[in-house]
C-alpha cells in the first residue's frame, strides 16, 4: 500500500512538472490568426461583417465600413505585424513573408514594399494587408 501511494505521488509530481513546462511555450507562441480574428470580431468597435471582408478581399464593389482600418489594425496588432505604438514590426512581417513566399519571390523586396507605413496606424494596417494580399501572402 505504501509503495502504491508513493507511486501515485511520483506520478502526480511528474504530471505537475510537465504541465508547468508545457505552459510557457504555449504562451510564448504568437496568437493564432483564428483566435485574433475571433477577438476582433467579438468587439463592436473592430467588427466588420464577414461578407463585406470577403468582397473587399476579392476586390468586389462594396462600401468600406468606417471601422475597416480599426478592424485590420486589431488583427495585425494581434498577430504581431504592428506594434502597440502603431509602428510596423518588421521582424514578424519578414518571418511571415519568408514562410509564405514561393520560389522566386524576393522576400526582402516584398518586406520593403509592405512595411511602408501610412499616415495613421489604421492606414498602415490596411496598406500591409493589401500589399501582402497582392503578393499572395496569407496572414
Ligand atoms: C514602437 O515600439 C517598438 C516595439 O515595441 C519599438 O521598437 C519602437 O522603437 C517604437 N517606436 C516608437 C516611435 O516609439
From TrEMBL:
InterPro entries: PBP/GOBP, PBP_GOBP_sf. Keywords: Secreted, Signal. SUPFAM superfamilies: Insect pheromone/odorant-binding proteins. GO terms for cellular component: extracellular space. The keyword Zinc-finger does not apply. It comes from the Eukaryota. GO terms for molecular function: odorant binding. Belongs to the PBP/GOBP family. PANTHER family: GEO07291P1-RELATED, ODORANT BINDING PROTEIN-RELATED. This is Putative odorant-binding protein 9.
